[in-house]
Amino acid sequence: MAPAHDFWPNCGYGLLTSDAQGHLLISDDFFRSLLLRPELAPVADSCAAEIALHARLLQTPRQEIAPDELAVLQDRDAADNYAVWLRFRARLLAEPTLEACYRALFQGEGVDVPPLLVQQLTQVVVRHLLGGAATQGVTALQARAAEMLFRTQKISVQEDGAVMAADDETVERHALSGSFGSVGELLKQGGVPLRSVDLDVLNPDNAEVYWPRSEHFDTVVSLNHGQPALDALCRVLERWIAHFLQVEVRIQTDREIVDAHWVWHVGLDAQASSILNDLYTGAEVEEDRLRRMLCLFRLEFVNPADMLAEVAGRPVYLAMAMDEQNRLKLKPQNLLLNLPLARRS
Length: 345
Known about the structure:
This protein is α+β, with helices and mostly antiparallel strands and 345 residues long. 38% of the residues lie in helices and 13% in strands.
């Protein structure tokens, strides 16, 4: 049975198949889609060697390319981009599945591929776990909340306390063109009175507007406690953890950590990690940093035996926070690397 809605059709998900465990297998067509990105596709003044190299790789995306074949390219930026693509291809081919490659990116000495490619892998995996053949019932709000895992959000805290999140790239694009209305202006400038609506605030009543424009990334959601977008994000994070780690968890929003036996926490971004670490150790946290905290979450393992024995049955606290530029940059890999999982044989 196919998912009810096709969304993010250009992310590359449709070019992949999955194995018996439901994990994604890399295909030549997926490599070809990366080669067609503007960073690699030849342009009018590309040299003959670059055009020939691109054509060969489109024909046989897995063929070996010697360093001297890049050295002869006249456009050094293009040569550098091909070197990045080849390194990324090697990463993908070194692992049996896309998910295994994703996890391996964050192990060792650090990520050695551009954030743009990491974000695309994240989007493909999220698309799979939300809309694969075995996963039905995704809502528009869940799909919109899932964008937060691979696209930076611009946050605006309004005078009435409403916390709104819009896609940062979309806000910047509209700002440059001068084409956005009240919600966009509010997000860009932090408090312009509403006159007309250009970016739709997504809620259960108008959620169906999301599907036909899923790749426009032009809807806004409220991140206030109790709002449906936060509940949708909880459901997405639960699926993310289950897909990668094969453990079942329940996540809900929380207002504060009142726990004399606080034993574990995970920041969903760099800002939240720093703030949680300071709160945990009792260090003083400036009021300005605390104001950047957008939400606390409480994660509980359905089966405590899936946890480290010394913390089994205890909650894990999660948080997300915006930076000094009012941007929220989630790092979903933190949930794969930092949960207190029992060691498995």
